Amino acid sequence: MTEPDYENFVTTFEDGVLRAEIHSTSKMNALNGTMTEELFDLAIRLHEEPVRCLVLTGSDGVFCAGGDVATFVSEDAAGEIRKGASLLHDAVFQLREAEVPVVTAVNGPAVGAGFSFAIMGDYVLASEASYFQFGYPGIGATGDGSSTYFLPRVVGLRQAKRIALLNERIDPEEAADLGLATESVAADEFESRVADVTAQVAEGPTVALGRTQRLLTESTTRGMEAQLAAETDAMAETARTDDFAEGVRAFVEKRSPEFEGR
């Protein structure tokens, strides 16, 4: 199947892995209106196509340097920002609801909206050529794109406030230590490691992995009773999947399972 001709992404879909590489028409891979619409389209594809892993990465040594600030200079900047943020948040919500594991491969600066995209991944690979920066205070703005949702969840409230207040660059090693990234990877090994991780994820039981990521993320806002109820529902629903049946058969037959992602 031919991949869509996006203006701000170059995509490939192979062996269950949908790779979306940011090639923004704005400088420094900045987020613009069309890119937001295309991100929403990518999110919807996770619901409608047999995607087993989404990889979001940047190009030309840049992940995403935030929003296209030049577009904020208008008489109705507040209205335009509300519209853009609303669509962006719809895209993020659809990404999380899809129950497809998301790998963010941070190949360079991840600032502002790029910071938000980076840390929302289920597995975050940070190249040694990258850095993370909250970014929003630099233009007198608050965080969006789910940054204020995920940041305290991955680093804790105290560290989240430090990162937001000081707005300092965070190198990949510190990002991994803090929990912003899952691991820091040498630049010359980065693409190989991305391929290894995504292949391993894509070969797994996609529905179970996706639902597990949701359970873990949502556990921070639930009490134990609600979390256990959610676990029960997810376990029962996942038991209806082909991959569950295959996993059980493989266990009984003492062989490795061959999951198909459904």
From TrEMBL:
It comes from the Archaea. Pfam families: ECH_1. Gene3D superfamilies: 2-enoyl-CoA Hydratase, Chain A, domain 1 (3.90.226.10), Lyase 2-enoyl-coa Hydratase, Chain A, domain 2 (1.10.12.10). This is Enoyl-CoA hydratase/isomerase family protein. It comes from Halomarina rubra.
